[in-house]
Amino acid sequence: MALLEVNDLKTWFHTRDGVVKAVDGVSFNVEAGETVGIVGESGSGKSVTCYSLLQLIPQPPGKIEGGTAKFGDLDLLSLKEDEIRQVRGKRIGLIFQDPMTSLNPYLRISTQLIEPLLIHEGIGKTEALDRAVAELEAVGIPDAKKRIHSYPHEFSGGMRQRVMIAMALITRPEILIADEPTTALDVTIQRQVLDLIKARQEELGTAVIFITHDLAVVSEVCDQVNVMYAGRFVERADVKTLFSCPRHAYTRALQRSIPALQSKGEKLYTIPGLPPNLAHDIGGCAFAPRCPEHEGMPAHAVSRPALKEVDPGHWVQDCPACLAVKLSA
Amino acid sequence: MSYLELQNLTKHFTKRDGWFGNTTTTVKAVDDVSLSIEKGEILGLVGESGCGKSTLSRLVMQLLTPTSGSVVLEGERLADLPPDEIRKRRRDFQMIFQDPYASLNPRMTIFSTLAEAILTRRTELQSDRDGLEAAVSELMERVGLDSRYIRKYPHEFSGGQRQRIAIARALGPEPKLILADEPVSALDVSIQSQILNLLADLRDELNLTMIFISHDLSVVRYIADRIAVMDEGKIVEVGGADSVFESPQSEVTKVLLSAIPQIR
């Protein structure tokens, strides 16, 4: 049995402009110790998926409309507030994108770092402080004994992200959710933070759910990858398969649009159009209006295509046009 | 003589330290930088955080006074000009910032944002409402925005569209030099390509001269003709974009290159 089994998760937002189906039927498993990636453009529902698991969606306007998330013998989605608190920050840790805004500027690092220990493990302050110092050393902060009493603004962006990682891992969670942890950082710092997450994961055996829009980052850290578009997964495969033989038109378009892989002098490839408005019902394949392969293909059925297993472990939305592989691409 | 020349540009910041502020430490943020840029050229400026890229760009934009050295545009030393003349020249230097969510005034419509920029150069449009509106529409279409959205506010646009508005605003005063400070780092990978295409097109159409600052060498390689690598306030390497990428000379460049995530 997998560590976490998410089944048909639906999170909708009830707004004045209608019901926005931000996450509309998402299923995935996380095995102990593995790294599962969720990639997609802004607004595809990556973050909402993960925040739903910890019930961090503002309700209202958000509402978890259906699905289950089995974590051991718990269903995360139906836990009461005091029960989910036993999980959040204890058994499932979180790192956010922006380390500048996710640390409290008024509190010393020490206060923020030992808080989860005081709450979840009920140990004394001195003991908690010792563990916090050890944790800071483990994420590579020099002179941790002194630095722990600093305020967040005394750290650089990369160092702050290290503090966030220390804070998320201090309770030894079984799962770490990393939401775009390196997007706000320089490439060289990004490299250090990615290496650090990988190293800590190997030492502690933590499973990681890694959210990002950057396919290159995914290819470096993830074992399994889910490609998300308009609230659903369009493709899932292990990282090797996804990059060596992507099947869905969206995955292929996303790969082609990476500036680093294109040659100078030519126009950069871009995906035409915009992602669909999720407040409107999507009939058929959500990617159809932006997909070159849909030209000349018959119009679609009213429902969105379901995931189909094309090879063992390789799932793709069953849309004939999106699956029509052009080898030249 | 090049279009824009930076001659031995240096900026030191001194900081008072100690109990009575009687010890001073000097930070050499920009240290003896000389560079030249031709008309219509895009120069990529790369380096890690804290290497002095932003200080250098502020010196070029005349937002800081250099400790020594000078900026020469079209053969004219800017430091020699009287203050009110410098203020007039400001419109010749325009910036595009990293975060399109923070760099646009949320209370101004696209029309007012762009009209303000256009009026700095074309003052005759002040009393010509129709002419001004036509100029704004033209500017919007130039950067790939539908001019029907002229009355909308920034929050009604996506990140990529906002960056287009920011680019349009920079083009409004018909500048001689555009300084783009990490213009695509805050955007999704798929949107990055769209903005890079737009900047490359605009350069071809308008013969723009641009300094493109980024920490991402792969992006700079695509857009820039030449790349200058900065470290600890000094330029450590300058060369054609491809040659810097393919045969890096300095340690810093090698570190920056090896840090780029690769698809394996």
Report on this structure.
The complex is a heterodimer of chains A (329) and B (264). Chain A is an alpha/beta fold and 329 residues long. In chain A, 30% of the residues lie in helices and 24% in strands. Chain A is built from eleven helices and twelve strands. Chain A has helices spanning 46-53, 81-84, 109-120, 125-138, 144-147, 157-169, 187-204, 215-221, 239-244, 249-256, 320-323; strands at residues 4-15, 18-30, 35-39, 62-71, 74-75, 92-95, 175-179, 207-212, 224-229, 232-238, 307-311, 314-317. In chain A, the strands form two sheets. Chain A has an eight-stranded mixed beta sheet with strand order 6-7-8-3-9-10-12-11, with helices on both faces. Chain B has 264 residues and is an alpha/beta fold. Chain B has one domain: Rossmann fold. In chain B, the strands form two sheets. A six-stranded mixed beta sheet of chain B has the order 6-7-8-3-9-10, sandwiched between helices. In chain B, strands 2-1-4-5 form a four-stranded antiparallel beta sheet. In chain B, helix 3 packs across helix 4 (129-142), helix 3 packs parallel to helix 5 (159-171) and helix 5 (159-171) packs parallel to helix 6 (189-206). The longest helix of chain B is centred in the C-terminal third of the chain and has 18 residues, at 189-206. The termini of chain B are far apart. The mean pLDDT of chain B is 87. The chains are: A alpha/beta (329), B alpha/beta (264). At the A-B interface, helix 7, helix 8 and helix 10 of A face helix 6, helix 7 and helix 9 of B.
Topology of this protein?
The complex is a heterodimer of chains A (329) and B (264).
Chain A: E1 4-15, E2 18-30, E3 35-39, H1 46-53, E4 62-71, E5 74-75, H2 81-84, E6 92-95, H3 109-120, H4 125-138, H5 144-147, H6 157-169, E7 175-179, H7 187-204, E8 207-212, H8 215-221, E9 224-229, E10 232-238, H9 239-244, H10 249-256, E11 307-311, E12 314-317, H11 320-323
Parallel strand pairs in A: 3-8, 3-9, 6-7, 7-8
Antiparallel strand pairs in A: 1-2, 1-4, 4-5, 9-10, 10-12, 11-12
Helix pairs in contact in A: 3-4, 4-6, 6-7
Chain B: E1 4-17, E2 23-37, E3 42-46, H1 53-60, E4 68-73, E5 76-77, H2 83-89, E6 93-96, H3 110-119, H4 129-142, H5 159-171, E7 177-181, H6 189-206, E8 210-214, H7 217-223, E9 226-231, E10 234-240, H8 241-246, H9 251-259
Parallel strand pairs in B: 3-8, 3-9, 6-7, 7-8
Antiparallel strand pairs in B: 1-2, 1-4, 4-5, 9-10
Helix pairs in contact in B: 3-4, 3-5, 5-6
